[in-house]
Each structure stands twice: as C-alpha cells, then as structure tokens.
C-alpha cells in the first residue's frame, strides 16, 4: 500500500507539479491579461474621452456657427436691432471663453498632441485666432456688416483648420484601434501557448472564447473605424449608420460610448453642412454694388405681401449707360454703378429694399404707404423724383464729370398676388414707356393713375413756375358797412396760366398746401397786401381801408410766422392796424396756447384778427373769450339760403348775437341778393362782402370802384355799380 501510495504520489507528483505550474501560469497569465486589459481599457477610455470632448467641441462650434449666421441674417434684413445683436455678441463671447478652457485641456491630451504632431501651441493659437475674429465680427456687425463679413471670413478659415484637426484625430483613433486589436490577438495566442501544457481542451476552449471575443470586438471597432473614415473622407455625405446606432443601443461600456461619440460627430457634421448651405443661400447680394439682387428682392416682395398693405415697386434704368461703357471702359462703368448705388442707398433710406436687378437696372420696394390710391401714388412719385434729383448731381470720375439720368417705372399693387414676378414686370414695362417717351421721365403702369398723376405733376410744376414767372395775381373783393360805405377788402389769390387761362383757386390752393408751396405763396400774398396798404395810406380817401389776408394752417404754424408778418409790415411801411389776418377755426383751436401767444404778439403791433368761416367748426365759447379776436366772419354757406332755410337763419342770428355778446365785429361773406342783405342788416350784422357789392377784381378795377363809391358817399347803396 505504501509503495502504491508512493507510486501514486510519484505519478501524481508531476501532475500536481504540472497542475501547480499550470495554476501559476494561469494565474500569471490571467494577471498579465487583466493588467493588459486594464491598460487597454484605460487607453481606449482616454481616447474615447478625447473623441467625446472633440465631438462636443465641434457641436458647440456648430451652434456658434448657426448663431453667427442668424446674426448676419438679422443684421442684413434689419430684423435684429443693435441691442439684440449686442446680446448675441455677449453670448458668443462667453461661449467662446468656455470653449477656450476646454480646448486648452484638449490640447494637453496625448492623442491631440500626436494627432497635431506635438504642436499643442499651434492648436491653441488657431482657436484663439478663430475666437478673436468671431468676437471682432459680432462686435462690428451692427455698425458695418461688410467689415464684419471680412472678419467672419477670417474666422471661417480658422474653423476649417479645426475640421482638418478633427479628421486627424479620427484617423489616429482608427490606427490605435487596429493596433490594439493586433496586440490583443497576440496576447491571446501567447496565452494559448502557455495553456497548451494544461490541456488541449482548455486551450481550444480558451482560444475559441478568445477568438470569439476578439472577433466580435474587432468587428465592432472596424465598423466604427469605417464609419469615421467615411465621414472624414466625405464630410457632406449622409452615411448609413444603422449598425452604429445598434451598437450604441445594444452594447455597454466603452464600445457604447465610442459608438455614441461617432453618432455625435455625425450630427456635428450635419449641422456644419446645414450651416454651410444656409451661408450659400444668404448669397443674395450683388458683388459689385453690395445691393440685394433680384432673388432677394423677390423674397422681400413675398414677405411684404403678407402684410396686406398697399405697396409700390419702382424700376429704374440708367439712360445712356452703354455709351459710358463704350467710351470710358467697363472699369469706369463699374465705378459709375457703384456711385449710383451709393446715391440711391442714401436716397432710399427707410425703404423696404433697394436691389440691383440687372446691368444698369435697379428696383425699390416701398411699404408703409397710405391706404388711398392717390396717397400711395404720390409717395411713390416723390421717391422717384428724389432718386432722379440725387442722380442728376454731377459725378466726377477719373478727371471726367459724368451726368446721369434715369427712367423710372412705377407700379402700385397689393395682396393677393398670383404671380410674384408681375410687379417687377409691370414696373419695368412702365420704365420702358418712360424711356420711349424720353430720358429722365417717370411713368406709372396703371393708365388711369398715370393720367391723374401726370396732370397733378404738371399742375404742380406749373405752379412752381407760376411763382417765379409772376403768373399769380392778387384780386380784391371790397367789404362794406351798414351804410354801404367801403371799409376794406379781402385779398384773394388768382392764377393766370399762360395756356389754361384762369385756374380755379379750388384746384391749385389744395395742391399748394399739399406740396408746401403754400408757404412761399402765402408770404408773397402777405407782402403784397402790406404794400397795397402802404399805397392806400398815401391817399386820404383810401387811408382808412383795411385788407384781410387768409393765413393757412401751415403758414401760421411756422416758427418764424410772427417775424415774417413784422418784417412785411416794416419793409412796406404799412399801417399795422389796417392789416387783418383771417384764421379758420381749425387753425385757432389747434395748439391754443401757442396760437394765443402768436396772436398776442401781433396784436401788440396793431394787427387785427378775424375768424374765417365761423360756424363750420367746433369752436368753444371758453376759447373764444380767450382769443384776441376782432371779428367773426359768417361762412357763405349759411348766407346762401338764409331767406328760405330756417336752420341757416337761426345759425346766422346766433352767430351775430354771439359776436355782439363777445364785443366782436360780425361780417357776412357771400351776400349776393338784396334780400340776404336786408335780413343780415335787420338782425344786426355789421359788415358785408359779396357779389351784391363787388366781385373779386384786380386792384385797378377795385380802386376805380372805390373812387365811384367815394364820389357817391351821400347816396344809398347802388347795387348796379
């Protein structure tokens, strides 16, 4: 038994020794494998962390890219004001500061230093350049978009350097994955050799398990590497990453993180691609003049139509521009176009859009117009005239002075609009009509509106010439007292047109008020009345007569109106107490305190005031008592039917009674029949004016009539005189 036991021990000793050695080998191999696996896992995790940081960094940069594009778009279409742009600038600056800290940490990693060939300082420098140009771009965006665009272009070049750097990271990571796969395979082979002495079955099992694990890991890593290579080689493509998504969903640990990093990198590339596409879509500007082109004009037109408000489109084409190109060369022609664009840009400030639609063609879209068709047409016409005036200024270029004129076509339209191209087509058609008719003209597309606007424009131009050409005439309509004696006259304006003859005041006075021509005309009438007062003061039988002058609202509201009246009186030498200014109720009751102050200043000089067309407004007795008035003038509409309309008769009696109660003189205008005169006299009216006594007439005829009345001063009123 002992021998058997010894033999058994002897036979079993090698087995135990082999088993012990095998256990030691297994333990050692397992320890080495664990150590190798931990090192590999740490390296993979470190690389994964670097990749994750790089992906997150790329994503953050992509968001900054989008915000920059939005800021540029908002600055160009004026949808963002300066405060909003400053907030965007502050947010981007803060984000770039945070990214700067991240990139500093990223630059210290081994993977980044290897991928960038050890030039971590170069990486930091590139990022600092990118950050600096982005901040400079957003800082000046609200002030000068063109300078901001140049800074943004510089930042884009540094951004591209980051894209190349990311590609090198991905390539480096792919190489590392392949190397580790090879190292793991070699480790497993060594383990298989060491475990061969233990048993073929265990070795085969271990090798099979190792091979299966290695194969599975290798395939996953290969899939990730292939996806990275595909995205790096074709950044604008859309690779199918369903298998990567499955890895991310089904795997755990580093493989899941690595797959997630690949997906995040793909999303960052997609955002970058979208940002680049948006940048391309923002290329809506003409490179020569920096004005919007036809495409952007069409988009702005579509946006304006959504407001359902009246719109106007002006098409402008330079006259004789081809001659400049032929005689001076295209370089000078380009300079002319740039100068024209600058002048139009200055003239059309506040318009919806000014665009260059062709070689020497421009278009202006007007919004915020009046709802009435005449108002819309008038505003569009004024803009066309302003552009023509700006272009008419001499243009010196290369020792040569050029004179530019333009033909302008205008179309008026409003939503709904079936075809967005129709407004520009109509405006260009009207512009060609203007070119056909001659240079430097304006034409409307709508024939009816065109006819009305042309008539109004011609009348306004004629009125401007009438002021300088002494076509305006002063007529005088005499005023009489209750005994039929002349006590004064109202000066009235008439226009003797050289072709049309006498133009009705109802036709040209509203036009003068709308175009501000009433200011020089009103001053001219005031000066003429003062001169006539001075002339009458030299004649004893006319020295007591007064002259009433109508004052428009615009004229009275001028800051220097009091000075104008004082100067007219002083220059002419007229007696101020004989000058009577007629103001309407609307003028008097608007800005009452200012009105009272002006009236008081002139009243101190002796000038008297009459409230014209009294009864047609909404005068307050409280204000009437405060106003330094001398006279109330009954509007002729009440006098016309005074004998057969009880309402008019009651109104006239009330006005006369009100005047007496306030101590004011009352005069009735439009007295045309003896019955009207008798009614007014019976109820206490003081003065009268109308065709019954005298019609408006030139000064020589008025003075002859005055002379005749003076010769018959002891007789009753002779209505036939």
UniProtKB/TrEMBL annotation:
Chain ranges of the GGDEF domain: 309-447
Q: Indicate the transmembrane segments per the record.
A: 7-27
SMART domains in the cross-refs? EAL (SM00052), GGDEF (SM00267)
Q: Out of the domains of life, which is the source?
A: Bacteria
Q: Which residue numbers delimit the EAL domain?
A: 456-710
Record's InterPro entries?
Answer: Biofilm_reg_signaling, EAL_dom, EAL_sf, GGDEF_dom, Nucleotide_cyclase, Rev_trsase/Diguanyl_cyclase
UniProt keywords (A-Z) are:
Membrane, Transmembrane, Transmembrane helix
NCBIfam families cross-referenced by the UniProt entry: GGDEF
Q: What is this protein called?
A: EAL domain-containing protein
């Amino acid at each position: 038994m002992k021998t058997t036991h010894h033999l058994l021990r002897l036979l079993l000793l090698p087995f135990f020794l082999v088993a012990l050695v095998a256990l030691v080998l297994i333990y050692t191999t397992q320890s080495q494998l664990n150590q190798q696996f931990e090192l590999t896992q740490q390296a993979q995790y470190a690389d994964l962390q670097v990749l994750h940081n790089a992906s997150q960094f790329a994503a953050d940069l992509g968001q900054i890219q989008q915000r920059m594009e939005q800021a540029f778009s908002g600055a160009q279409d004026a949808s963002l004001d300066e405060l909003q742009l400053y907030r965007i600038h502050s947010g981007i600056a803060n984000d770039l500061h945070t990214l700067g800290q991240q990139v500093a940490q990223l630059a210290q990693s081994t993977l980044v230093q290897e991928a960038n060939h050890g030039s971590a300082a170069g990486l930091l420098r590139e990022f600092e350049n990118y950050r600096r140009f982005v901040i400079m771009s957003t800082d000046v965006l609200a002030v000068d978009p063109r300078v901001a665009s140049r800074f943004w272009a510089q930042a884009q070049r540094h951004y591209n350097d980051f894209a190349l750097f990311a590609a090198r990271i991905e390539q480096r990571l792919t190489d590392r994955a392949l190397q580790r796969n090879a190292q793991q395979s070699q480790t497993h082979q060594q383990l298989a050799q060491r475990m061969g002495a233990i048993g073929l079955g265990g070795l085969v099992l271990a090798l099979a398990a190792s091979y299966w694990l290695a194969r599975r890991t290798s395939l996953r890593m290969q899939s990730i590497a292939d996806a990275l290579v595909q995205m790096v080689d074709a950044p604008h493509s859309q690779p199918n990453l369903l298998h990567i998504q499955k890895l991310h969903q089904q795997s755990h640990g580093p493989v899941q993180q690595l797959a997630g990093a690949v997906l995040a990198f793909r999303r960052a590339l997609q955002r970058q691609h979208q940002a680049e596409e948006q940048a391309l879509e923002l290329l809506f500007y003409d490179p020569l003049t920096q004005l919007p082109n036809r495409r952007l004009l069409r988009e702005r037109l579509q946006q304006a139509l959504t407001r359902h408000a009246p719109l106007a489109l002006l098409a402008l084409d330079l006259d004789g521009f081809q001659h400049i190109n032929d005689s001076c060369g295209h370089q000078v022609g380009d300079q002319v176009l740039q100068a024209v664009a600058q002048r139009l840009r200055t003239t059309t400030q506040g318009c919806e859009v000014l665009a260059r639609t062709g070689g020497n063609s421009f278009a202006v879209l007007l919004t915020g117009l009046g709802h009435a068709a005449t108002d819309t047409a008038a505003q569009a016409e004024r803009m066309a005239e302003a552009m023509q005036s700006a272009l008419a200024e001499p243009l010196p270029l290369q020792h040569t002075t050029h004179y530019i004129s333009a033909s302008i076509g205008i179309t008026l339209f409003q939503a709904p609009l079936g075809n967005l191209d129709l407004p520009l087509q109509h405006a260009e058609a009207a512009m060609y009509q203007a070119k056909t008719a001659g240079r430097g003209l304006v034409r409307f597309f709508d024939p009816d509106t065109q006819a009305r606007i042309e008539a109004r424009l011609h009348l306004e131009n004629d009125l401007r010439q009438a002021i300088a050409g002494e076509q305006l005439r002063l007529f005088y309509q005499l005023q009489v007292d209750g005994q039929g004696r002349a006590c004064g006259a109202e000066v009235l304006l008439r226009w003797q047109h050289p072709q049309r003859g006498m133009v009705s005041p109802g036709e040209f006075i509203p036009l003068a008020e709308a175009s501000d021509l009433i200011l020089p005309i009103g001053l001219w009438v005031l000066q003429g009345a003062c001169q006539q007062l001075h002339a009458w003061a030299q004649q004893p039988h006319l020295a007591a007569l007064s002259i009433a002058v109508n004052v428009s609202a615009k004229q009275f509201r001028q800051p220097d109106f009091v000075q104008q009246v004082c100067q007219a009186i002083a220059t002419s030498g007229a007696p101020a107490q004989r000058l009577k200014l007629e103001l309407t109720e609307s003028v008097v009751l608007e800005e009452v305190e200012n009105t009272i102050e002006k009236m008081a200043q002139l009243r101190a000089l002796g000038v008297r005031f009459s409230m014209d067309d009294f009864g047609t407004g909404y005068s307050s007795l409280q204000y009437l008592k405060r106003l330094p008035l001398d006279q109330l003038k009954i509007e002729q509409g009440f006098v016309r039917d005074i004998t057969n309309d009880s309402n008019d008769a009651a109104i006239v009696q009330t006005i006369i009674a009100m005047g007496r109660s306030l101590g004011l003189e009352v005069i009735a205008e439009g007295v045309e029949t003896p019955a009207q005169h008798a009614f007014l006299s019976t109820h206490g009216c003081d003065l009268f004016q109308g065709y019954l006594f005298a019609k408006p007439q030139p000064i020589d005829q008025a003075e002859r009539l005055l002379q005749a009345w003076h010769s018959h001063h002891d007789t009753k009123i002779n209505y036939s005189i």
